[in-house]
Design a protein that fits this description.
0% strand; mainly alpha
């Protein structure tokens, strides 16, 4: 219990100590964080009380296990579990996007590619959900900052040979950049994306035959672009919520 209080009162100091551990002690500390900090005790409560700043700090550590669990909490507990039409959901999406973007540079210093992949993919999903769930008016506050982030940070990462491999990190870069470009564009592209997603939803709500996977694939691909396809994949993950 003392360690939990210590984390909540001084998370940076707690994590500095965590980063100095190795081998068996690191494994024990990993277990403690996942079981006692990143675990909710009932279905109605959010992990760490929904404190996005503390979750983002845990998502910036060097342990891929802790990073994944912290990012899952941000997505599932804080964002995806909230009603589809809720204004609170849009607010939390925008808040989560801001926190992950502003801590992105610090996170890139983490020397663990698996953890980086988790982080990049989660950010790309959040900014894509911003595209799908928030109006242009609701995005005005973050618009200049995400455009700068796309131009200066994501563009540099995409052109960095260190990240030229075909993995989820590079996928996240592409998806995040495309989503930001569509949010920033003059034309509201959500209407055309929603038509494609409606096809997916109709297929999922109907009685599907043996070729259901093929039908679903055709419905998604009818959009005709890489962005249409991957936005629909994000939507399909979000649909049960």
């Amino acid at each position: 219990m003392t360690k939990i209080v210590r984390f909540k009162s001084s998370p940076k100091e707690f994590l500095d100590g965590f980063e100095s551990t190795h081998d068996e002690i690191r494994t024990e500390e990993d277990h403690f964080i996942i079981v006692h900090l990143l675990n909710k005790y009932d279905s109605k409560s959010a992990v760490l009380g929904g404190n996005l700043e503390q979750l983002a700090m845990l998502a910036c550590c060097s342990s891929p296990h802790v990073v994944k669990r912290a990012l899952d909490a941000i997505l599932n507990e804080i964002i995806l579990s909230i009603s589809n039409s809720s204004r609170i959901r849009c607010h939390n999406l925008l808040k989560a996007e801001t926190i992950l973007r502003e801590s992105f540079v610090n996170f890139m210093a983490v020397d663990n590619m698996k953890a980086k992949c988790h982080r990049m993919t989660t950010y790309s999903w959040i900014i894509t959900l911003v595209l799908l769930k928030c109006s242009k008016e609701e995005c005005i506050g973050i618009l200049p900052k995400i455009k700068e982030f796309e131009k200066n940070t994501l563009d540099a990462l995409q052109n960095n040979r260190e990240y030229s491999g075909r993995n989820t990190f590079r996928y996240g870069i592409y998806l995040a950049r495309e989503s930001i470009k569509q949010i920033s564009g003059r034309k509201d592209s959500r209407q055309s994306l929603h038509r494609i997603m409606k096809k997916c939803e109709n297929l999922l709500n109907s009685k599907l035959e043996k070729d259901e996977v093929m039908k679903l694939g055709k419905a998604i691909c009818n959009g005709g672009s890489w962005m249409d396809l991957h936005v629909c994949l994000v939507f399909l993950q979000d649909l049960p919520k």
